[in-house]
């Protein structure tokens, strides 16, 4: 089958893509920015890529006419606090218009479980998108899921952060709300199982694991599965806004996502039936099994995708290519270079920077800077990195965004997503003479920006000086 995969850069899309190829399908990835498609060369050669922004009016015939099916995996919950529902509705309408020029037979939409008359804004938006998609000229299959548990999922990473960083928690009363988690492996099984299955046409199905827990029980069960204890005290006085700030500072989530998640956590999310399990003969994994599977992927460095690599986890709202040309005028620089004898080893150290590896010099200073950034509303250092030594253009890397990761050209270019009075780039490059170049570039925003740069020049002297020496000469730091 010829399949259109929207949201191909997202957490679910990245998991689904290789499996669809393995099943023998021809996949067309619809992305806003082709350079953001973080896939290996082997996968890239097997797919077709089309740049489409579904927030804009569609162009005729931008897609091949002979598309058989499509996955609608687009959402905007992390992109906005106030108008994400309007963005999602616009996206759905434009999707309908775009595929109207094709011979598409089926659209598969991953939504959220809606079994309450009073819905959160997030779930109300998902239901609205579902209603809009039902207006399209195709057979719609809707899968409604609760919280998804898997390595790199936002739900799992928040649970992990809370439990492993706070053995004792004072929590708001929403932790007593019931929910029904589902393993990411089961979500993918359901998504692929309904493809081309006429029994699932023009119908909506709840998908969930076998366990129904309160969020408090979910936190306790996680600690139990990982071999430690945690204590949770529930209080009635935390407002949604205070709860959101609490999640934002303790976990790696963005404030926008935290606020929308807290709003949804007040609503009970439990599957109403098991029809799809019976149709596809799928037996979902338990919550504990989902945790075990997630950690096997983490321990083997096999995490395929992470919500943190989404653009909306940082400050980008548009095409990253507009930042890829490092400015030469009106900027302040810290440029260093060293002759190296082992370019391959140095390149591997560059490709392993950040995350658990750290920044090769003054890691405690980087952590302080990350904490200050978090206090000022930035992303901080908690995003880390998805893989210990593999980087793709568009990935998040602590409080940086990868603008260019070209191992063949021996060049890594990062753009700062921390809160700054200006714009900052950090570049590592090894030239043909085996000279390592490390360049920090800052374009200040007025006097405030210049004062900021000169105030941290003494720190740059030690940090950047030590960093290039350690990258060039040390195997372990």
UniProtKB/TrEMBL annotation:
Under Gene3D superfamilies, the record lists: NAD(P)-binding Rossmann-like Domain
- What positions does the domain NAD(P)-binding occupy? 7-149
- Whether Secreted counts among this entry's keywords is no
Q: Name one Pfam family in it.
A: NAD_binding_10
Annotated Gene Ontology cellular components are: cytoplasm
Where, by residue number, does the polypeptide cross the bilayer?
A: 451-472
Q: Which SUPFAM superfamilies match?
A: NAD(P)-binding Rossmann-fold domains
Which GO MF terms does the UniProt record name? Answer: aldehyde dehydrogenase (NAD+) activity
- The molecule here is called Uncharacterized conserved protein YbjT, contains NAD(P)-binding and DUF2867 domains
Instruction: Look up and give the organism this protein is from.
Output: Maribacter arcticus
């Amino acid at each position: 089958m010829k399949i259109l995969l929207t949201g191909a850069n997202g957490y679910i899309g990245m998991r689904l893509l290789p499996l669809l190829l393995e099943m023998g399908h021809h996949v067309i990835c619809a992305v806003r920015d082709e350079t953001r498609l973080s896939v290996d060369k082997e996968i890239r050669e097997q797919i077709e890529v089309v740049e489409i922004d579904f927030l804009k009016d569609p162009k005729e015939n931008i897609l091949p006419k002979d598309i058989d099916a499509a996955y609608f995996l687009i959402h905007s919950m992390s992109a906005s606090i106030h108008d994400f529902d309007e963005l999602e509705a616009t996206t759905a309408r434009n999707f309908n218009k775009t595929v109207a020029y094709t011979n598409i037979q089926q659209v598969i939409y991953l939504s959220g479980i809606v079994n309450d008359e009073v819905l959160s804004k997030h779930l109300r938006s998902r239901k609205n998108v579902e209603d809009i998609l039902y207006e399209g000229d195709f057979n719609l299959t809707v899968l409604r899921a609760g919280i998804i548990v898997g390595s790199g999922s936002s739900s799992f990473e928040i649970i992990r952060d809370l439990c492993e960083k706070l053995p004792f928690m004072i929590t708001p009363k929403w932790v007593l709300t019931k929910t029904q988690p589902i393993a990411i492996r089961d979500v993918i099984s359901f998504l692929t199982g309904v493809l081309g299955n006429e029994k699932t046409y023009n119908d909506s199905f709840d998908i969930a694991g076998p366990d129904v827990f309160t969020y408090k029980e979910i936190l306790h069960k996680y600690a139990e599965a990982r071999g430690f204890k945690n204590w949770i005290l529930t209080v009635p006085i935390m407002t949604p806004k205070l709860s959101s700030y609490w999640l934002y500072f303790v976990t790696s989530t963005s404030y926008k996502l935290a606020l929308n998640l807290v709003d949804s956590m007040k609503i009970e999310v439990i599957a109403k039936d098991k029809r799809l399990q019976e149709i596809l003969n799928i037996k979902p994994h338990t919550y504990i099994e989902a945790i075990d599977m997630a950690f096997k992927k983490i321990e083997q460095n096999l995490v395929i995708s992470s919500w943190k690599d989404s653009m909306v986890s940082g400050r980008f709202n548009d095409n990253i290519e507009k930042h890829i040309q490092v400015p030469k005028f009106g900027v302040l620089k810290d440029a260093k270079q060293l002759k190296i004898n082992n370019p391959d080893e140095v390149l591997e150290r560059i490709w392993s920077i950040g995350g658990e590896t750290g920044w090769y010099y003054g890691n405690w200073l980087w952590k302080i800077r990350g904490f200050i950034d978090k206090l000022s509303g930035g992303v901080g250092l908690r995003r880390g990195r998805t893989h210990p030594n593999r980087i793709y253009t568009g990935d998040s890397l602590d409080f940086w965004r990868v603008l260019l990761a070209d191992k063949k050209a021996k060049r890594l270019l990062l753009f700062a997503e921390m809160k700054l009075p200006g714009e900052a780039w950090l570049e590592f490059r090894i030239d043909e003479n085996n000279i390592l170049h490390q360049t920090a570039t800052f374009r200040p925003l007025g006097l405030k920006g210049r004062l900021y740069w000169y105030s941290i020049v003494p720190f740059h002297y030690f940090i950047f000086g030590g960093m290039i020496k350690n990258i060039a000469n040390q195997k372990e730091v």
